[in-house]
Specification:
6% strand, globular, single chain, Glutaredoxin, alpha+beta
């Protein structure tokens, strides 16, 4: 009887805790949602998601349930989730939206997930947000959807009606960047430069907004930054940002031109020196050599060339010591442990792992070091270091570390 009392007593508290996040509509239809929004004079927030989308799941589990997110969205929106794919596990509520989800995909050009659509109280699409983010980021982007001055769809209409209004053109570009609409971003930024000039776009006020648009070698912003590296660099320095213009541009070049070749499994003899020469010829003002070392390491990892991987990592450590973190060293070392039996590779990995323990002996790094000792044949010291890892491990780590220690003592492999 006492246990029943406790359940009844706690039920209102449990229900209250479940209502802290966004309250999504259920067992309804689009017409009813629009009627409710109009009656309550609220905007409509629609989460277009799929069951296979990792960021969609992350948003649902980690962002939507937050109290501050719920406070903002429940005050301003009638919220709805629409599943865009179809699975055998779909319930009747999901199935009832099958036709509507197809219409949303077509009419509102839903191409990536998650996509968040915002409609005004009249049911007209005014804004879109593409991609996940933390709570503050989502709230900030949704707030843009409440303001006609920053609503993407509203701005597009204004932009088409007023293509010579530089202020509207820039606001449209900024909204397009947030929505990952690369075509509109490039069009609007190119138009803004025509109207206001390069100096107006490359200002302290604007540069933070346009940085995310430097995402392709074909983008207007890539050309803008390449042709004005000194001015852009001065602005990044003034803003105390931790990266350089060269970092940004080299990263885009690597992503667009180099990585497709690296991930081509048929490409078993990639000539990195020839590739560097090509990049230097095509992009003479941008230095990619430092980044190419890391790419080369990834190439050797993909093709399981562990002696090559070892040599590249040693070069990275010797030439880029100031930017190599303990986490990176641990990852390099653990990659060798998991994949390579070559003694020379294991000895190098032991040195990387030992370096990762300075100044803080992270339990995971201790585990890596112990495993490398064990695989190298030094069982006695491996056991000592693994016991040290267990002593400083968290509760969630300890069970796995103890299992590894048992294997060491039994003479069994600790690797797959």
């Amino acid at each position: 009887m006492r246990s029943l009392f406790i359940v009844v007593f706690l039920l209102p508290l449990l229900l209250f805790s479940q209502e802290k996040g966004i309250k999504f509509e259920h067992n309804t239809n689009w017409k009813t949602v629009k009627e409710k929004a109009k009656a309550e004079n609220k905007y409509i927030f629609v989460d277009c998601f799929t069951t296979w989308c990792g960021p969609c799941i992350w948003m649902s589990e980690n962002v939507f349930p937050q109290e501050k997110v719920g406070d903002f969205f429940n005050k301003n929106f009638v919220s709805l989730k629409i599943q865009m794919d179809q699975t055998a596990k779909d319930n009747d509520d999901v199935k009832s939206w099958y036709d509507e989800s197809k219409r949303f995909e077509k009419d509102y050009e839903v191409r990536a997930y998650p996509t968040f659509l915002i409609f005004n109280p009249e049911g007209e699409l005014v804004h879109r947000i593409v991609g996940g983010g933390d709570a503050d980021d989502l709230i900030a982007k949704a707030r843009m959807g409440l303001n006609p001055e920053t609503q993407l769809v509203t701005l597009i209409k204004k932009y088409k009606a007023n293509p010579n209004d530089a202020d509207i053109v820039l606001k449209t570009a900024i909204a397009a960047i947030s929505a990952y609409d690369n075509d509109l971003t490039n069009e609007a930024l190119a138009r803004y430069i025509q109207l206001a000039g390069t100096d107006a776009l490359l200002s302290k006020e604007n540069i933070q907004f346009i940085l995310p648009a430097v995402n392709s070698t074909n983008s207007a912003t890539f050309e803008l930054f390449t042709n004005n590296m000194d001015k852009a660099e001065a602005l990044l320095t003034e803003l105390n940002l931790s990266f350089t213009v060269n970092d940004i541009l080299a990263g885009v070049i690597i992503k667009d031109i180099v990585m497709p070749q690296v991930y081509d499994e048929a490409n078993v003899s990639l000539d990195f020196e020839a590739l560097l020469k090509q990049l230097k010829n095509d992009f003479p003002s941008i230095d990619t050599r430092r980044y190419m070392l890391h790419v080369k390491g990834e190439y050797f990892r993909i093709h399981k060339n562990w002696p090559g991987f070892k040599d590249v990592v040693n070069e990275i450590i010797s030439t880029q010591d100031t930017i190599i973190t303990s986490e990176m060293l641990n990852q390099f070392a653990y990659t060798i442990f998991e994949n390579c039996d070559d003694l020379a590779c294991l000895q190098s990995a032991l040195l990387w792992s030992e370096k990762s323990l300075n100044p803080i002996e992270n339990p995971r790094y201790l585990d890596t070091y112990a495993n490398l000792l064990y695989k190298s044949g030094d069982v006695k010291n491996a056991v000592l270091w693994q016991e040290k890892a267990i002593k400083s491990a968290s509760e969630s780590e300890r069970e796995q570390f103890e299992e590894t220690l048992s294997k060491m003592k039994a003479g069994k492999p600790t690797w797959n």
